[in-house]
Design goal:
Blueprint lengths: L3 H20 L3 H17 L5 H16 L2
Helix pairs in contact: 1-2, 2-3
Length: 66
């Protein structure tokens, strides 16, 4: 069983990697990082989950419109 801090750190790392991929225009790769990060944040009921959910929706829009 992972400790909450470790899980939070994992989510933060995935979010950062997703952010970098998005900046580079690699939107599908960004989602591969962002979606698991979102699942973690939702599971631990993090207040950041809502903000990351908006990021995921934005990246999905970028994919649809590219």
């Amino acid at each position: 069983e992972e400790q909450i801090g470790n899980v939070q750190g994992k989510a933060t790392t995935l979010w950062w990697l997703g952010h970098i991929a998005e900046q580079q225009g690699n939107y599908n790769q960004a989602l591969d990082y962002l979606q698991p990060a979102l699942e973690i944040l939702q599971r631990i009921q993090s207040p950041d989950a809502e903000r990351l959910g908006q990021v995921v929706a934005r990246v999905q829009d970028l994919i649809r419109n590219s």
